[in-house]
Amino acid sequence: MRQARPVGQRYQMTESTVQSIFPGVRALVAASLAVPESGIRLDSRLITELGADSLDFVDIGFAIEKAFGVKLRESDLNFLTRLDLASPAVVQDGFLTAAALDEIAPLLPALATVPDRTRLTPRELFSLLTVETLCLMIERQLTKS
Q1: What is the CATH number assigned to the segment(s) 4-144?
Q2: CA 116/CA 95 separation, integer angstroms
Q3: Counting beta carbons within 10 angstroms of the beta carbon of residue 91, is it exposed (0 to 12), middle (13 to 18) or buried (19 or more)?
Q4: 77 HSE (CA, 13 A, CB side)
Q5: What are the extents of the domains in the chain?
Q6: Which pLDDT score is estimated for 30?
Q7: pTM over 0.85
């Protein structure tokens, strides 16, 4: 398996896999959130476990751009806020629809841990952002290049 290798301050990707991206993302998240790397797992939830807030996401986005040479657009980082919560195709009776969840599932692996997806509210989505979500966004950008 090819790996991400540090080149100066940036990572040169020789293969776009979450496992090869993760060590670099873990280091960036640790530095941005002032938490020990040893406490960061792929499934660590950025907001509820690691304490990230909106300004931290901006900092992490810039760090990712510098380290990996990819630009995560604001729309990439805000994929949850782009959901049209007023649309019945997205929310019905206060809960997200299966179609809406299926659309965001590729970037939100923590959805698989939700006991009852039929009872998931829009507010609960943000607690499902993980370090793996960041890795998947980077991978998506690298495969576009």
Answers
A1: 1.10.1200.10
A2: 11
A3: middle
A4: 18
A5: 4-144
A6: 97
A7: no
